[in-house]
Amino acid sequence: MAKKKSEFSPNDFVVYPAHGVGKILSIETSEVAGFELEMFVIAFEKDKMTLKVPTNKAEEVGMRSLSAPDVVADAMKTLKGKAKVKKAMWSRRAQEYEQKINSGDLIAIAEVVRDLHRADDQREQSYSERQLYEAALERLTREIAAVGNGNESDAADEISETLASRAPAA
């Protein structure tokens, strides 16, 4: 059976839109409904989860390599920007934030963190706002850590400092 070259290999870190950063453990062949399917076996350590993604569907589902360092730099720049909070109803905004988080796009995720971040002197966040903020922050932190030195607490500190240094919201 001829193997087609994949852009992902075992031990590569990848971003799966709905789950964030994972590590490819192996590429295995499984029989599904009588067909041989080549699958990426991806571990998401933090979530204690393993996912199998057919190699021929990886691109289609939005699986991608980690962001390049310049994309990380752009994401950090995004965090420094002024929060853009639309006047739409919360349910609509929450839906948009959820879509951005699950898009797997690092800049979109940074926008959610920026828009939902509250300084200590600002009003309290609702439970759902905090849930979305924490989900976005975790995705951002994991990918920045994976692109950098792999240390999540360093990445979290860098994000916190960036958010603290930005101009106060009007």
Give an account of the 3D structure.
The protein starts with 12 loop residues before the first strand and ends in a 5-residue tail after the last helix. The chain is built from five helices and five strands. It has helices at 69-80, 90-103, 106-116, 127-147, 152-165; strands spanning 13-16, 20-32, 35-44, 49-54, 64-65. Strands 4-3-2-1-5 form a five-stranded antiparallel β-sheet. The protein is globular and about 60 Å long. Helix 2 packs parallel to helix 4 and helix 4 crosses helix 5. It is an alpha+beta fold.
Helix content: 40-55%
The fraction of residues in strands falls at: 15-25%
The mean pLDDT is 88
Order of helices and strands: EEEEEHHHHH
Distance between the amino and carboxyl termini: 62 Å
Strand order of the largest sheet: 4-3-2-1-5
Number of helices: 5
Give the overall shape.
globular
Secondary structure: number of strands = 5
Low-pLDDT residue intervals, each spanning 5 or more residues:
1-5
Describe the structure in brief.
The chain is an alpha+beta fold and 170 residues long.
